[in-house]
Amino acid sequence: MDVINKLFGEGENQTAFQMSLRAVVIFVITLLLLRIAGRRSFGMKSPFDNIIVILLGAVLSRAVVGASEFLPTIASATVIAVLHRLGAWLGTLNLRFGAIIKGRKIILFRDGKLNHDNMRRALVSESDLYASLRSNMNVENFDTIESAYMEINGQISFVKKQQGLDLSDK
Q: Dihedral sign, CA of 131, 132, 134, 140?
């Protein structure tokens, strides 16, 4: 036990070496926890997925600086990772539950009309929507766009109108 205290320090007073060694251990543990949580925890970037990033950072930093005891900190971080994985899994089994924890897309434009109520709900102005249209679709108006959505990750996506086959040319 004395060797562990010498290597990792105790409480909030560690040397640079001790804190660095703690950081290495926490890095490895965090990597394992993110494997438990699943790839979506960093890939999807929805509010549900951002929770794990924020909470793991907050909780595990306490173990690095010695503000909390090591094992209880790792235990709480493990619970967070398992809860995230469980929530994501349950969300795939039950669409209603998935919508509650992950959210739903919001229709911003459809049938040639902007949906101003949904735009207010999504906190998207017309200028925001047009800027996203120019950036993502390289067009300045909605002539070639069928619909636009605020996705659960906060991104605005567009669906192009289907190009009909003109058989009169043949």
A: negative
Confirm if 84 and 39 have CB atoms less than 8 A apart. Answer: no
Query: Phi, psi at residue 163, to the nearest 5°?
Result: -85, 115
DSSP letter at 53 equals H
109 closest CA partner among 74, 81, 144, 154: 144
**How far is the CA of 54 from the CAs of 37, 57, 81, 142, in angstroms?**
14, 5, 12, 37
Tens of pLDDT, residue by residue over 21-66, are 999 999 999 999 988 887 776 666 788 888 888 999 999 999 998 8
Task: Give the H or E element holding residue 106.
Answer: strand 106-110
Q: Token pair of 79, please?
A: 């619970």
**Taking the alpha carbons of 132, 135, 141, 146 in that order, is the dihedral positive or negative?**
negative
Q: Which of 136, 132, 141, 133 is nearest to 112 (CA)?
A: 141
Give residue-wise pLDDT tens across range 144-167: 999 999 998 889 999 999 876 555
- The Cα–Cα gap between 21 and 23 comes to 5
